[in-house]
Amino acid sequence: MVIHWAQVFGAAGLGGFRLLPVEGHVVTVCTCAACRFAGGEPLLRETERLLGIRAGETTHDGAFTLETSADVAAGAIAPAIRIDTLVYGPLTAEHLGHLIEQRRGGGTSQDGGNGRRRRRTAVARES
């Protein structure tokens, strides 16, 4: 079976796979219709302001990469962003600033970024 390289790269691009390595935290602002309608554009502008970069760029220290995507799959909690693999929403500029500062400090919180403490259980589960 022979598969052309263009087919591989095309399928990888549609599947949301990364073809090149990315440094630091990847911040993805959702641009689906629901997020745009609920305030996604101001959220993108605020993210660009907080990080000092535009979409598609990486900060000079390599700590953050900012991108936009319509496939964050968070229309129900619009406007939303994804930081690495975690999706947050609905977000305000204040919440966004807190999430960015949390990542800058390298710390993680018990609340998962939503302001509510998770209940500890005997079995660790991803929520």
Short overview:
The protein has 127 residues and is α+β, with helices and mostly antiparallel strands.
Report on this model:
The protein is of the alpha+beta class. It has a domain at 28-104: Glutaredoxin (3-Layer(aba) Sandwich), CATH 3.40.30. The protein is built from 4 helices and 4 strands, in the order αβααβββα. It has helices at 5-14, 33-37, 40-51, 93-104, and strands at 25-30, 64-69, 81-83, 86-88. It has a 4-stranded mixed sheet with strand order 2-1-3-4, with helices on one face. The N and C termini lie far apart (41 Å).
For this structure, the CATH topology of the domain at 28-104 is Glutaredoxin
Give the overall silhouette.
Answer: globular
Question: What is the C-alpha radius of gyration, as a whole number of Å?
Answer: 16 Å
Overall CATH architecture of the domain at 28-104: 3-Layer(aba) Sandwich
Distinct helical segment count:
4
Gap between N and C termini: 41 Å
Strands across the major sheet, in which order?
2-1-3-4
Order of helices and strands: HEHHEEEH
CATH class of the domain at 28-104: Alpha Beta
Strand content: 5-15%
Approximately how much helix is present in the residues?
A: 25-40%
Q: Largest sheet, described in full?
A: 4 strands, mixed
Classified in CATH, the superfamily of the domain at 28-104 is: Glutaredoxin
Low-confidence stretches: 108-127
Based on helices, strands and strand pairing, what is the structural class? alpha+beta
Mean pLDDT: 79
The total of beta strands comes to 4
